[in-house]
Amino acid sequence: MYSTCMSGTDTARRLVEATQELLWERGYVGTSPRAIQQRAGAGQGSMYHHFGGKPDLARAAVRRSAAQVREAADAVLAREGSARERVRAYLEREREVLRGCRVGGLAQDPDVVADPELRAPLAETFTWLRGRLADVLEEGRAGGEFGPGLDTAGTAAAIVAVVQGGYVLARSAGEPGPFHEAADGLLALLDAHAARATPAS
Amino acid sequence: MYSTCMSGTDTARRLVEATQELLWERGYVGTSPRAIQQRAGAGQGSMYHHFGGKPDLARAAVRRSAAQVREAADAVLAREGSARERVRAYLEREREVLRGCRVGGLAQDPDVVADPELRAPLAETFTWLRGRLADVLEEGRAGGEFGPGLDTAGTAAAIVAVVQGGYVLARSAGEPGPFHEAADGLLALLDAHAARATPAS
DNA sequence: GTCTATACCTAGATAGAC
DNA sequence: GTCTATCTAGGTATAGAC
């Protein structure tokens, strides 16, 4: 599942990968067919042969980036360890913080949210991620790691939001510090729940 | 302080306001001088008479939007009530969730973060906001509302990040629900700290 | 499949008349 | 102060040759 394999020729693959990079760096409005062609080393004819145009190419690129983001998150959340440790690993895993999220960043673009086919991978990614984190938290609660009162769905939503908002704070500040401060702050709040579940003897 | 008054003529004011609206709706790359002029009801000549060009106009608009965001947040955080209640009011105040944040949304734009004069108002706004929220939390801690172990700075960063990330989740989903789920989830985590400070007898 | 030529529109700005 | 030309570059796409 979450396959990132691609059908089609090598040129088509390079076009999609170039589009993924440019969407990440410049967003949808900031990405031109010309720039895509140059980065992919392909001509106009190739691009319009394989894809119907910029929106078509963007849809393929966004779907692939979304699948990759889900794969990367799942790789961390499926590891061994306590729920708290897996959440911590997710919050603090190596991230190119100042680049932001390949998927979440696109939500700022009005042309993306206006196109159902472009927005769908974003919605699916965050719905899946919130569910995946809620499952991890539920495992922890069932194992006595957290108090029974932990709102797993709400906490999961807060975790995802802190990551996405952390990118905003870091990019605004021009340095990654605020991302980590927000993540650490959230973890500390979660630990208060863990402390309640297993009070110091 | 945080004055949003503007110097200059009526035309200059309309140009700045039109730019503020367009930056909010379409971002920096998505906002053209032509669109600004049309929305402001001004001609080319007027715009280039009052401002040096698109970057100059954008700097004025971003500074003003940042000041307005700080004013609005301060109005909520300076109200009467407990710290917990003021944080809740900040998280749940009326927001046009699907429009996102006038200031934070610009952090996604590479041309904004690359220009120190454009990025500075973003950095100042979030630095101020985190400090203001940390002060509110500190008041609550001093008053016994939270346990002494509350990390006020980290929690403040998490609150701001949840709001900014909540916008991302809501815009991705196409509906405001995820914003409020994340905000409620964070509040519930904070309440665990309040419960520890004043355990049920 | 890939190339080049062509087309039309917009971005962003300057010059000079009024 | 505001207007109307005018300009160069790029965005986005189609047509048709190879």
From TrEMBL, chains A, B:
The keyword Transcription regulation applies. The keyword NADP does not apply. Residues 9-69 form the HTH tetR-type domain. InterPro entries: Homeodomain-like_sf, HTH_TetR, Tet_transcr_reg_TetR-rel_C_sf, TetR_C. Pfam families: TetR_C_13 (PF16925), TetR_N (PF00440). Keywords: DNA-binding, Transcription, Transcription regulation. One of its GO terms (molecular function) is DNA binding. This is TetR/AcrR family transcriptional regulator.
